[in-house]
Amino acid sequence: NRKVVLKGFITGAPKETDMEVKEGDKIVLQLPEDVKGAVLVKNLYLSCDPYMRGRMRESYDSYIPPFQPGSVIEGFGVCKVIDSTDPNFNNGDLVSGITGWEEYSLIRSTDKLRKIATSDVPLSYHLGLLGMPGFTAYAGFYEVCSPKKGDFVFVSAASGAVGQIVGQLAKLHGCYVVGSAGSKQKVELLKNKLSFDEAFNYKEEPDLAAALKRYFPQGIDNYFDNVGGTMLDAALVNMRVHGRVAVCGMVSQHSFSDPQGIHNLYTIVKNRVNIKGFLQSDYLHLYPKFLECVQTYYKEGKIVYIEDVSEGLDSAPGALVGLFSGRNVGKQVVCVAKE
Ligand code: NDP
């Protein structure tokens, strides 16, 4: 049972060499009888998510504990049940939930595993469009941004797993939407495939505040912040009076122990800006509504989804690390095995 382990706690930007793909124990494809309420799964797709960087840090004062050095990395995955002692799951069921970065996993707590019912989307979409990132976009946009038709909306890391859905939901809501991303290819995707009104490559802008002023001459009503740091700072000075900032994540800050680049906090007072951090897990009661909404949009062709699939367990460390240099184009997943 090959697996990816974290070698040791890290500081700074994550590197592929912080992880190791190892031969694990020989796997017996049957659960021992005394293991009750568990499932044995074959892992098909693994999700690479920025929060996983936080779990590689020793003192991680957060809502989720650090990974243990020498132990298998865990994260969201789509899996097939091989054996089950939980009456709610049968052999052959497809499920999504927290699993190990390995070929087969024993999942002892099955309460958060979701059965995958629909087969009309690619399986891997249950880690993105219909999974945690899609739900983050939905909850963050509708519940935190409090959007109104005609709002001027800015989304950073806009072509990523969360950002691409935020932008499309905002367009469907009747907003004017601009996204920032880190390459020409991503900017083209935003404008030509993901329905954004405008997009720009922040790496080519010497003055981010001036760039935002160009795209939002009347100011920003809603900033959906995925990156923090200097982009948040630039957005602050462009917020309209009573504007809202939904702070979803700060991917530009993961490798620093102190926040970087924030100088414009006074704008929060001047323009009475409402800044709210959120975790998707606070809104889980909305999950059925989210699925209904996004599945319908997808079936009607009103939402598209872009993902970046890397092949094989060996590619997983590189795929995860790539999130922090923007190597991924769309939602990053790893295909471990075909069904
Ligand atoms: P993405 O698919 O967007 O991948 C990360 C992207 O971040 C990269 O592709 C890159 O895009 C961008 N990026 C990386 N480093 C930097 C940097 N230094 N400065 C600016 N941009 C950078 O990831 P997700 O969509 O999965 O996550 C987006 C954000 O949402 C993250 O901050 C994540 O932590 C957060 N999140 C929060 C949740 C919540 O409950 N609050 C739940 C899920 C995610 P580019 O090439 O455009 O720079």
Explain this structure to me?
- By secondary structure, the protein is of the alpha/beta class.
- Helix content is 23%, strand content 25%.
- The protein has 9 helices and 15 strands.
- Strands 3, 4, 5, 6, 7, 14 and 15 form a 7-stranded mixed beta sheet that branches. Strands 10-9-8-11-12-13 form a 6-stranded parallel beta sheet, sandwiched between helices. Strands 1-2 form a two-stranded antiparallel ribbon.
- Helix 3 (163-172) links the parallel strand 8 (152-155) and strand 9.
- Helix 2 (132-144) crosses helix 3, helix 2 (132-144) packs across helix 8 and helix 5 (208-215) crosses helix 6.
- The protein starts with a strand and ends with a strand.
- The structure holds NADPH dihydro-nicotinamide-adenine-dinucleotide phosphate.
- Residues 49-51, 133, 136, 157, 159-163, 181-183, 186, 226-227, 248-252, 278-280, 323-324, 326, 328, 331 line the site of NADPH dihydro-nicotinamide-adenine-dinucleotide phosphate (NDP).
Keywords:
single chain; 339 residues; alpha/beta; Quinone Oxidoreductase, Chain A, domain 1; Rossmann fold; 2 domains; 7-stranded mixed beta sheet; 9 helices; 15 strands; 25% strand; globular; binds NADPH dihydro-nicotinamide-adenine-dinucleotide phosphate
